[in-house]
Amino acid sequence: MKHMRTHLILMTTFIVLTASLISIPISILITKTFFNTGTQDMIVRGLTVREIITPILIIILYTFMFIIASRRAVSPFVELSNATKQIAAGNFDISIGWAHKKGGPARLARNFNLMAQELKANEFLRKDFISNVSHEFKTPLSIISGYAGLLDSEEISDKDRHEYSLTIQKESKRLIKLTSDLLSISRLDHQKIQEKAEAFRLDEQIRQAVLLLSAEWSAKNIAMEIDIPKIVYIGNEALLAQVWSNLIDNAIKFTSNDGLICIWAHAQNGVVTVKISDNGEGMSEETQSRIFEQFYQGDTSHAVEGHGLGLALVKRILDVSGGSISVTSKIGSGSNFVITLPVKESAD
Q1: Which of 282-291 are b and which e, b meaning 16 or more Cβ less than 10 Å from the residue's Cβ?
Q2: Among 2.115.10, 1.10.287, 1.10.10, 3.40.50, what is the CATH number of 129-189?
Q3: pLDDT of residue 223
Q4: Full-prediction pTM beyond 0.70?
Q5: pLDDT category, 348, cuts 50, 70, 90?
C-alpha cells in the first residue's frame, strides 16, 4: 500500500508539472484577451503582475484538483489495508461497505468480504472442533480417574474390582480409538490422492470386517446376510478396511436385538458398489444431512456409544479414494448406506 501511494503521488506531481507548463502559454493568451495586452508591448516591457499571477493561480487550481482526485483514488485501498490489519488481528466481523459499487476496487472489496466470511466460518468450526474434542476426551478420562480411585479402596470386593478394571480398559480403548480417528482425519485432510495403491480382494476384506465384529452382532443375536462375489480392487487396503469396520459397527450399534444387517456388493461398468443396510431404528432427515460431519451424533441421548468421528472418517477416506457414500433412512425402518468406488486398472 505504501508503494502504491508513492506511485500515485509521483504520477500526480508529473501531471501537475505538465499542466503547469501547458498553462503558461494558455495564461498568456488569457491575459492578452482579457487585459488587452498586445504581443509587441508584452515582448518589449515583459510580463505584468497580472500575467504572472494568472498562471500561478491556474497551477494552484490544478494542484488542488489533482490532490482531491488522488485522495479519492487512494482512499479505497487505504480502507482495504486497514481492514486487512483487522483480519490479521482476528476480527473477522470486518467488511467493506462500498463493495456493492461498480469497478475494480469494488470487485476487490467483494472478494475481501467473502474472504472475511469464510474465515469467520472456519474460526467457528475450529472453536466448535476444540470444544467437541475436549468433551470427548474429558468423559472417558473422568471415568478412568474415578474408577482408578475406587480401585485403591480396600473395602471393595474382588468382583467389583474386576468390573472397575474392565470399565477402565473399555474407556482406555475408547480414548485410543478417538485418538486414532483424529490422527487419521488430520492426515487425510492434507492428502489429495491416495497412496500405496495395491490389488487386493475387496470381498474378503469386507467378510473379515464382519468376522472381527462377530462378538458385537452375536451378542445382540443379529442375523448377517452377505452377498458379495469375488471382487479384486486396486486401492489403499488399510484405509478401506476402516470404511467397512466403521459402517458395519455403526449398523450393529443402531440395530435392535434379533435384527438384520444385509451387505451386498457388485462390480459393473468400472464401478464397485457396496450396500450396507439394516432394519434398525433409522434416522431423521436432519440427521441424514449431517451424519458425515465431525463429532455429529444423531443420538442426542448418547444411549449408543460413539464419538461422532467414524462416519466423518469414512467420508474422507472415500473422497481420497475417488469414491462416494450416500444414505437413505426412515425412522423405524432402518438405514441403507451405498458406497461407490471407481475400478482402477493395474499399473502392470
Answers
A1: bbeeebbeeb
A2: 1.10.287
A3: 94
A4: no
A5: very low
Q: Can you give the residue ranges of every domain in the chain?
A: 2-91, 129-189, 199-342
Above pLDDT 90, what percent of the chain? 22
Q: Please give the Cα distance from 54 to 305 (Å, whole number).
A: 89
Question: 199-342: what fold?
Answer: Heat Shock Protein 90 (3.30.565)
Kind of pairing between the strands at 232-235 and 198-201:
antiparallel
